[in-house]
Amino acid sequence: MVFLPRHPMGSAALARLAAGALILTLGTITAAPVSAELGKAYAPIPAATLALMSQKGTTASAPVLFRAYKKESEIEVWKKAANGRFVHIKTFPICRWSGQLGPKRKTGDRQTPEGFYTVPQRQMNPNSKYYLSFDVGYPNAYDRAQGSTGSAVMVHGVCSSMGCFAMTDQVVGEIYAIARDAFAGGQAAFQFQSFPFRMNAANMARYRTDPNIAFWRQLKEGSDRFEATGEEPNVTVTAARYAFLPYRDTALESLVTARRAQEEARIASLVEEGSAAVRTTYSDGAQHPFWAALSAKGVSLGDVSRPEALAYAGQDVVVIPAQRRPVQVAEAVWSRWMAAAALPPLVRVRGFVPAYETEPPRFAALVTRYEQTLPAMLSASLAGQMPAPTPPAIVETLARR
């Protein structure tokens, strides 16, 4: 039911990992008995996911970071490796999010928020009505500075959203377990990054005319810092805008500077080349194609919010059509194309010399009379050197009638 990257480990190794995880989990449950209802909150991380962590040089107890993309309907899991950098572990498909691309503004607008959020352990909810959940922390300092209202924006189970990230019970169970074990390993709070789309140069050029573009440029700066360094960006809010504190390591800041310059140059190049500008609209959010395909096969996703709206999800409205510039060909190239020697033998004219290969006369004959400017046939006719045209026989026959 989820995306699992392939791994080179054998079944025996996976079995050992699964057994170890099960023993650890059973030991935890024995030490602290819980009700059957709460047992789901103590379910182990799947063995295949543990294998992926091991493959990437990290563990279940290492710090975690989540990244959400609304347009792509995906949530990524990142874990800190032994070298101190976060590495991508896996990607989960979102079953349902609601609203449009752009930030959440007020209670009841059905908007799934965008921004940088902090999730401490107290925001984990094992008693959720939607299987398991955690509160992403909306509104944060930025949202409050904008006057935004609302609360209780969750990553939860089922497939119904009114501003939340609905993942289905099975998927949120694994996400919850990953976060739980990171807290058990000593992480005080994890960062939850929520973006409208993947923050690459192509998308920034594509959405350059959107009313939210100034806000998205702030998000891109934070995204670029993470992409360049693999370290969690230090997020602050200054003058009601996202701001990012520099890393203490100057080498990391150099990576950020290079990345930012490269991305800005790429965006400018795409715009200069005539990239189209669009706005993407939704009736009410979207769903990952993975879940749509399952539903089409008759697999029940449970309670899906506003399923009729999914038919109108992700409609692109072209604001500026793409305008591709013609390819510029050097004169040295096109002049050879036009030269007589470059023409096939069947279309060459014997003795023809192109004008651009003919040396012009140093002194052209002077025009002294008006008649010299007349076309040759007209001049000959006026001089009596051309016979008058003979009308066709049919014309003479008609004239005699």
Q: How many DSSP H or I helices?
A: 12
Q: Could you give the order of strands across the largest sheet? A: 3-2-1-9-4
Q: How many β-strand runs?
A: 13
Poorly predicted ranges: 1-34
* CATH topology (level 3) name: L,D-transpeptidase catalytic domain-like
Note the gap between the termini: 95 Å
What is the molecular shape? elongated
Largest sheet: 5 strands, mixed
Domain L,D-TPase catalytic: 64-191
Active site: 156 (proton donor/acceptor), 164 (nucleophile)
Pfam family, one: YkuD
Protein name: L,D-transpeptidase family protein
Could you explain how this protein is built, in words?
- With 401 residues, this protein is α+β, with helices and mostly antiparallel strands.
- It has a single domain (11-320), classed as L,D-transpeptidase catalytic domain-like, CATH 2.40.440.
- 33% of the residues lie in helices and 16% in strands.
- It has twelve helices and 13 strands.
- It has helices spanning 11-31, 36-39, 47-55, 141-145, 169-184, 201-206, 213-229, 250-272, 289-296, 331-338, 376-382, 393-400; strands at residues 64-69, 74-80, 86-93, 115-120, 124-125, 133-135, 154-156, 165-166, 189-195, 234-238, 241-245, 277-281, 315-320.
- The chain has a five-stranded mixed sheet with strand order 3-2-1-9-4, sandwiched between helices. Strands 5-6-7-8 form a four-stranded mixed sheet, with helices on one face.
- Strand 1 and strand 2 form a beta hairpin.
- Helix 1 packs across helix 3 and helix 7 packs across helix 8.
- The longest helix has 23 residues, at 250-272.
- The chain is elongated and about 115 Å long.
- The chain starts with 10 loop residues before the first helix and ends with a helix.
